[in-house]
Each structure stands twice: as C-alpha cells, then as structure tokens.
C-alpha cells in the first residue's frame, strides 16, 4: 500500500522511477535496524493484547469488542458474552491478561468501564474473569469494581498485571480526571494501584488490610492515571507508567503502602508551573524513577527479553500516544541510565514482546493496527 | 553584532524591515526562557574558569595561557610564571580551581600536560599550585604528576575538584588513548581518579595506601577520560563525567576503590558493537548513573544552585563538545530522572554557576568565548 501510494505521488510529480523498497518501514536505531510490519488492521482502538501460544492473539478493542486475531492477521468475529461496557470518552474495554494457568483453565481477565446500572453514565473501572470457549465467554465473574463510581469518562487506568508467581493481580487505576481530592485518601479506589488474588479476594498481606476506613485492596496510592504495567523478569518487581498533567509522565516501581504524590507533587505543569505550587518533592512522597517532560502521553510498557534484539535485554519499552513512539529505556537496578526514542509516527497504545522476541504494538486509531517490530537481518 | 549581520543579510535579500530583537540569542526551555550573552571572546580554547569573587574571572586557555577577564569582559595579558606546558593535540593548560582559602592565601591550582624533559613529546597530566599576585605566579609547586608519562597527546583528563571541606583535591585522568592495558592495573595513574591533599601529600584514608604495588593516590579506576567533575552541594559527593569510545559517555559517582569498567565494559561501541565483546555489565564493575549514546562528547559539569533558575535547583548541568549543548539532568538521590537538552550550537567545554545564579559557559574554539545564561525576565 505504501509503495503504491508513493508511486502514485511520484507519478503525480512527473517522476517515472519506481521505488523498490519502502525505507519508511525501517527504523534505524543504535543497536539494530528495526523492520515495522503490519500484522493486522481495522481494529477499533485496540487496547490490550495477549498471545495465545499457538500463533493466535486475543485483542481488546476499546470500542467494546474482544477478538481473536489469527497468525495470518485475519480478525475474528467479536467474542460473545462480555458484560455491559460503557463506551464513552476514554471508557470502554481496556486490558486483558490470560490466567497464569490458561492452558488448563482457559480463564481470561479483562478490565473495562462498568456502568452503575444498565446504560448509566456513572462508571468506574471493573475487572472480570471468564472462561473462553468457542469464541464465547462463560462464567463471567466481576472480581473487582472501583469505588466510588462517578460521572465522567476520563482517567480510568485499566492496565492489568499478574505477579511473577501468579498469586496476585495488580490493577492500575486513575483519578477520573476531576476527583483529585480522593487520591490522597485511602477510603476509596480513586488514583490507586490495587492488588487482589485472581479470585477477587483480598490478600492478607496487603498494606492497609488492618487500617480502619481504608480500602483493603489498595497496594499504593497517589497515582494520576496508570496506563502501563509490567513485571520486571529479573526481579519480579512491578513497574508502572502514568500520565502527568501537562508534562510529568512517570515511571514508578510501586511498593506496598507508599504514596506516589499525585496531586500534591508532580514534575508536570499543573502544580509546578511559573508560580511553583508545592512543587516536585515532598517528604513521605515517592519520586518517579523517570519522567517525560514534555509528556509523550505514555501508554503501555514491557520489559524486553528475546533473541531478536540481543542488545535490548532487560530494557523497558514504553509507548507514547501523543509521543507516537517507543521509548527504549536502559535499566540498571531501580533506575534508568539511558533513553533512545523510536519514532513510529502513529499513536501507540500498548507493547508486548512475543514468544519469538519480536515486539507487537497496538496503534490507537479508529482503524487501528497490530504492528510487529523485528530485526532487519 | 548578530543584529547587524542579520540586517545586512536581509538587505542583501531585498528586505527592508529591521529585526528589533535577535531571538537566536534566546533558548526556550521547559521552565525558563534562557538568554545567551557573550561575556568575553577571543580566548584560545578556554578550558577552565574560576570566579574571583570581585566580578573578575580567572580563565585558562588550552593554548597555554592563564588570564584574568574583567567584569566588563576585557581580557587581560597572560599571567606570567607558569611552568612549561606541552601544547600539542589535546594537551595544554587544562583546569584551574581557587584554593578553598583563596581570600587569605591567594593560592590557585591548575592542571596541564607536563613534558618529561624540556620540549619532550613524552607527557602526562600534572597539577601545580601557585600564589597569584600582580598578574604573576609565585612559589609554583608541582603537587601531582601522572605516572607513567607516555608518547601521544590524547585523553589527559585534567579536571579538578576540591572536596566540600577543602581537605582533598580530586584529579580526573585519562587513558592516553592508547594505554588501555594500564587502566585496570593499580601500579600506574592511567585511567584513574586520584585524590590527594592540597599540599600534594597522600591521604591515609585512600583506598589503596596499604596495597603493595598500588599507587596510593588512586581513588577509583577503570576510567577512560574524565572531563568534568563537581561536588553535589546537598551531599558532598563527587560526580564525574567521562568520554566513551563511540557512544557511551558516562556520568559516574566514583566511590573509594571501585572499578568503573573501562576498557572491559562500556555502553559505547568499541566493545559493544555488532559482535558484542564483553558487553555492558560485569560483576565487580560499576554501571554508570547515566550514559549518552550516541556520544555528546561530554565535557564540563556543574550542579545548579541559584536564584536565576529556581526550577533547576539541584540539577546537574553537563556540556557537550560535539553535542554543542547543555544537558540539564534532573537528579533524584543517586540517579537521573529526566534530561532536557539546551542546544547552544557551539562546542561547549565547561560550565560554572556564578555567584548571582547565572551560568557561565566556555566555548571550545580557537577564538573561544565566555557565554552567560540568564533568565529572560
Ligand atoms: Ca508521582
Ligand atoms: Ca564506565
């Protein structure tokens, strides 16, 4: 398609030569020339992706559908049996993860904007699990529902991650955009990172289980809008990314019970602009490990492991919506020591490393695509 | 001058309007619009700068002169009494620092390429101290001389820094370019960071004073070419920057007795390229806090403190030669959490924060300048 368009353009300019290779599909980076292929297209704001292990992928569309994409890129019919999802603003169907025991139990976990009652605009982020069989969900069970539900359709968070041992499910949440006053309080799930067991029960080891008036599901707080999460393979530690207000997109490594500062401190502009409100730092509040200012509108993250890009082992890949990029962050211990930017020229929602070491991206577009990054041999 | 040139250019293009403000002299940054003024010019590869406290500055030229620059920018005659300096390749007069007790003792410390015998091309980096009086140096004493001296005119290091209490002088050194085999051995000063007392004696607390065959002046080793050094005001910790081979310029926080990896590990290309030699990491060798890949040819560093740029408190400013920039690095504890690049469009050798909080830069040019960065009000 790209070749064709370019040829037409060149003819239009009175040129006759034919361009044999589309160099726009290759990104030169420090350690590798990266080939960008389109695996599938026509997905309505794809948001989450899981590899099914047999070449097929399970993909969510924010517009409210869950589909299987075959290895050849053909997109299946919507999987039936989803609960009611409120598709409005930033709300819709968000992330999905396979059960750590998927090959035996066929369970999947997914997050979405859940209306208070059928059709209501009062929503919050919920997580359900269900058994996937014959393109249909069975035994759907809501295992978490963010409290309180509120009007408005922004800052749902919605990213999911299982702990390395599979015993815990982390759920990244947001502040709804207009409920910042709740974020520093522990009696609600607004602007929180939550940790539950996969059956929805609350782990006894959660930091606030014995604190009166605190929601026991809370793992950490002071988050604005968690958009990406992944477990670091070498340490088992959860890393998250979240959106800043205007600049100040953050990378964090949330620890039990700690406060990540929103809306009191930020490296973005809302509180740190010309006048300087409370500013960047405050005792008792954690600093980010890294921030992007100006913002890239950071979305998904994944630690790289694989044979396609041997120099990238252990790097954290972070995607940007507005930033239209993959940021390759070199990690040493608990900090970043270098950043390289891969310019994709499309809004990128999520990144996953496939079993063969190639990297899959979802584009945030009404006719969104699955892209694959692999090394030019 | 810039205005004039632009006007002439515009007239040449048949334009008649007059540009009232030269916006090329302002750099827009996240937190401030930065005005760039030329304080002085006509300096032959200026390398080091110290504020004398009365508005005057002491400046080294790599070409072998030490001069006083008045507050109005007029450049004084060369100060007499310097020892013999071998000006060749990267060699010449390097850094200078005032004695911590300068207002009483009038002592200065400076580093330079010292020939083995008069006129010899066999050189190494030496540090001398002298009393400055009436544009003349008195009682010049060489307090350190890097061993061994070798042929070749590259990778001298040469940056100096006093510890916060003034009891210790750090001297950053290099590997001479072709003496990498010496860098991991402790019986020489090649590729080392050295710590001495200001009188040249060896501190009893140095890490290798009791190790047979080790040079007792060594503080840390495995450095390729230390180009910038500053003490972090809030912690008293020394931070250094050094050049990588081809990419992999580093920020380090050298601790006593530790190994910073050169030439065994690097984030640059020499050992990490297509083939991957030993690579990025090795047990017993420290990782950099930050690296620039591709290289900016990092030169000077200074921690910012001052009233001109209130949002930059505690930031580490690092200059680039090839990179023609000031990199503003936001520091949290012992790591970098954000970088912003100020494009100066000239090779920058060194950065110093002046008593009024404006930032002075030296350009690395045969007719080099002192530039001042201040906030546009
Ligand atoms: Ca934060
Ligand atoms: Ca190193």
From TrEMBL, chains A, B:
This is Oxidoreductase. Residues 43-372 form the Glucose/Sorbosone dehydrogenase domain. Keywords: Signal. Pfam families: GSDH. The keyword Cytoplasm does not apply. SUPFAM superfamilies: Soluble quinoprotein glucose dehydrogenase. InterPro entries: 6-blade_b-propeller_TolB-like, Glc/Sorbosone_DH, Quinoprot_gluc/sorb_DH_b-prop. It comes from the Bacteria. It comes from Rheinheimera salexigens. The lineage of its organism: Bacteria, Pseudomonadati, Pseudomonadota, Gammaproteobacteria, Chromatiales. Residues 1-22 form the signal peptide.
